[in-house]
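User: Reviewer 2 asked us to show a designed sequence for the structure in our supplementary figure. I'm pasting the structure tokens here. Could you produce the per-position amino acids so we can include them in the response letter?
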């Protein structure tokens, strides 16, 4: 394949999904209603729970006014359930009897907000986590049962196959949940220690297998972690693990691996590495303080929580081993990377006071509904107070602001937090098919370039040198360089530098975010319709989903022997002898209807989100996209056409994708005003219509930074998380769109 290096540009890309209307958007409260035919429905659910029976009770429900019948409902969780209370958590399966979903969501997990007087911990924690790693979305639901108001619940996205496909490109590989059936308050639980041995039956009560197989892969992870930790990168995504630990220690989330060693998932990607996934964050911000596998095994006070050592399991002898911490932190670079992640979380969420503004916004959003919640576990005054002050019930629940402000001050003075290198925005030089990447680094002793050729591959690491022979200017002038041969298209990379004191990433959210050198590839996935209801029909008159390819070259390209799939681990469908013309388009129907005339792949697309992958004849992955929940008759497509990043758009099958980056209104019936502009934090959005209206914010490099629905003609929006610079606000519904420029000072 010929590489067109002259079109290379630098982009900062976030590995996020492209959703249009998000069921989990946090701009309003969803309304869910249960209708049970049995008057003793609560007794029946109680009996299922007592017997340990995961059977469900059939019900009809409505979600924001949309009705569904034959839905299966049971209680969710363990400690949060009690037959003696009314407000229990619920697990709702929409497709229990028949195939049905709401906006691509087929399972609801509604938490009863126990052990959190503020009602803020879970929703805000997930919002922070999603900036740095794959994590669930979460918002609020007001629940009615047989038309009786049951109170405010948190609505948390399931970590299921749709979630895995969106973030990892597959869902069939080893997948386990670390959630012991019976928590041993003085034991090791799911600590990934050697203790359970090699007999899989010893793991059944600790690690729930969510896939068809996976215990042997778990054995290997445990063996390497405990007995050969120098090889751990082969079986574990180190970066994701360090981000998880950093998150848990900053937010004092001890109902996790760092405490009782539970409440996380493990998914093995197609590279053979396990990725930890956070779960059950309702007791973050130190609302759970019963134990920890270190010197705090008897619990800790609020004052101790403020100053808990983030390297506790490295600097102290643990009572019960936590090898996922202790063995990783023996590596000097891993410790510095971990502390760099802590610094990023602190500076982007807490030191800048973003969390206070966000918490106040969420509190205002749910205030009236919490006030009217007669089944809540705390008083309305407790709800109002707990953002700032301690609320005492069975335990002391610290005021979030009081806790985090002191914890921020402590962390900012922690060794390894400061005195790290600084890295300027990298640059590059192309010579033929060779690529030099350069970055000016101050106070850096060791500089590393990590790169890969697609978003699902492994980052390879090479040193960057300041030796005068790496296209880096004079020796020891602070400009570092690295040569990559034959790597000039679709390169994704980040830079890491460290000295004796600390480490630094560029971009700081690496490797969840990274720079991309987006060279023009000959053949690309150009547009995808995963919820085609009326856009275009195939030869049989069926409105099936479709994938559009585009040829970026001036010559015809043969696709014979190429592969297309919705699974990164399997080349499902091979192209017949078909050609795509110069600068032309090709449509493939994703409908499993391979016997029909035309190009019909042997897989379907999911409107809830998944990945699409394109390989050449040698099974080299040449293009891919992961997308999230989709809206009917909307697509995602490249802008600019054939070369750009993916954006939500009106469908243009077989046609040029219109740019979403213009400053014009395609329908004058949509009138929008944003003020103040420039701003340093809060903006007001005024529109002449809002029903069905969605808002996306992009930076000028095409990165999707925020998405939410608009619920009123005049609303406030917190954009204080954005750094200084220019951004694009994209407002759209099914018929109209407009783009506004936003300046952040």
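Assistant: Here is a per-position design you can include in the supplement:
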């Amino acid at each position: 394949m010929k590489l067109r290096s002259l079109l290379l540009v630098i982009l900062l890309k976030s590995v996020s999904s492209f959703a249009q209307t998000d069921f989990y958007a946090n701009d309003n409260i969803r309304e869910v209603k249960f209708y049970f035919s049995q008057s003793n429905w609560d007794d029946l659910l109680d009996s299922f729970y007592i017997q340990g029976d995961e059977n469900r009770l059939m019900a009809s429900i409505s979600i924001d006014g949309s009705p569904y019948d034959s839905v299966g409902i049971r209680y969710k969780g363990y400690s949060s359930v009690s037959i003696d209370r009314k407000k229990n958590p619920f697990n709702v399966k929409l497709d229990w009897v028949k195939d049905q979903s709401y906006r691509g969501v087929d399972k609801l997990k509604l938490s009863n907000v126990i052990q959190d007087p503020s009602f803020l911990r879970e929703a805000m924690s997930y919002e922070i986590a999603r900036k740095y790693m794959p994590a669930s979305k979460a918002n609020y639901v007001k629940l009615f049962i047989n038309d009786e108001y049951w109170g405010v619940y948190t609505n948390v996205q399931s970590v299921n196959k749709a979630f895995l496909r969106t973030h990892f490109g597959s869902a069939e590989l080893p997948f386990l949940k670390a959630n012991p059936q019976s928590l041993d308050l003085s034991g090791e639980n799911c600590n990934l220690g050697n203790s359970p041995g090699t007999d899989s039956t010893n793991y059944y009560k600790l690690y729930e297998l969510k896939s068809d197989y996976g215990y042997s892969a778990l054995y290997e992870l445990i063996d390497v972690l405990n007995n050969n930790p120098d090889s751990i990168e082969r079986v574990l995504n180190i970066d994701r693990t360090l981000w998880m630990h950093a998150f848990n220690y900053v937010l004092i989330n001890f109902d996790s691996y760092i405490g009782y060693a539970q409440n996380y998932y493990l998914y093995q990607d197609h590279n053979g590495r396990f990725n930890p996934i956070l779960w059950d964050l309702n007791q973050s911000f130190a609302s759970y303080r019963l134990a920890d596998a270190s010197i705090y095994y008897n619990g800790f006070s609020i004052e101790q929580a403020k100053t808990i050592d983030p390297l506790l399991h490295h600097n102290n002898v643990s009572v019960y081993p936590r090898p996922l911490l202790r063995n990783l932190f023996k590596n000097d670079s891993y410790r510095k990377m971990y502390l760099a992640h802590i610094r990023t979380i602190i500076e982007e969420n807490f030191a800048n006071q973003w969390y206070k503004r966000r918490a106040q916004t969420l509190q205002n959003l749910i205030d009236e509904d919490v006030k009217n919640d007669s089944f809540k576990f705390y008083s309305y005054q407790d709800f109002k107070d707990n953002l700032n002050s301690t609320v005492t019930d069975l335990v002391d629940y610290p005021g979030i602001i009081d806790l985090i402000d002191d914890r921020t001050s402590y962390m900012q003075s922690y060794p390894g937090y400061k005195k790290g290198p600084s890295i300027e925005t990298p640059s590059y030089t192309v010579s033929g098919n060779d690529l030099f990447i350069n970055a000016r680094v101050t106070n850096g002793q060791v500089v590393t370039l990590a790169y890969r050729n697609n978003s699902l591959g492994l980052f390879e690491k090479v040193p960057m040198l300041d030796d005068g022979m790496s296209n880096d200017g004079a020796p020891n002038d602070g400009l570092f360089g690295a040569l990559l041969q034959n790597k000039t298209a679709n390169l994704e990379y980040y830079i890491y530098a460290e000295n004796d004191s600390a480490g630094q990433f560029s971009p700081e959210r690496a490797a969840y975010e990274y720079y991309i050198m987006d060279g023009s590839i000959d053949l690309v996935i150009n547009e995808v319709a995963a919820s085609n209801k009326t856009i275009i029909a195939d030869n049989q008159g069926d409105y099936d989903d479709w994938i559009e390819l585009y040829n970026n070259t001036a010559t015809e390209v043969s696709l014979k022997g190429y592969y297309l799939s919705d699974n990164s681990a399997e080349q499902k469908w091979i192209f017949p002898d078909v050609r795509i013309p110069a600068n032309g388009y090709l449509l493939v129907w994703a409908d499993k209807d391979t016997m029909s005339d035309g190009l019909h792949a042997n897989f379907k697309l999911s409107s809830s989100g998944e990945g699409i992958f394109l390989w050449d004849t040698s099974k080299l992955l040449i293009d891919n996209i992961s997308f999230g929940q989709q809206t009917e008759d909307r697509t995602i497509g490249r802008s600019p056409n054939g070369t750009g990043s993916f954006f939500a758009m009106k469908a243009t099958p077989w046609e040029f994708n219109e740019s979403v980056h213009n400053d014009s209104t395609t329908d004058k019936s949509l009138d929008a005003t944003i003020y103040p502009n420039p701003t340093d934090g809060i903006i007001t959005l005024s529109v002449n219509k809002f029903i069905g209206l969605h808002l996306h914010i992009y930076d000028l490099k095409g990165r999707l930074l925020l998405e939410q629905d608009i619920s009123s003609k005049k609303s406030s929006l917190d954009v204080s998380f954005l750094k200084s610079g220019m951004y694009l606000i994209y407002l759209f519904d099914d018929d109209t769109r407009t783009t506004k420029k936003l300046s952040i000072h």
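For the response letter, you might also mention the following. Confidence is low (pLDDT under 50) at residues 1-21, 661-668. The longest helix spans residues 332-349.
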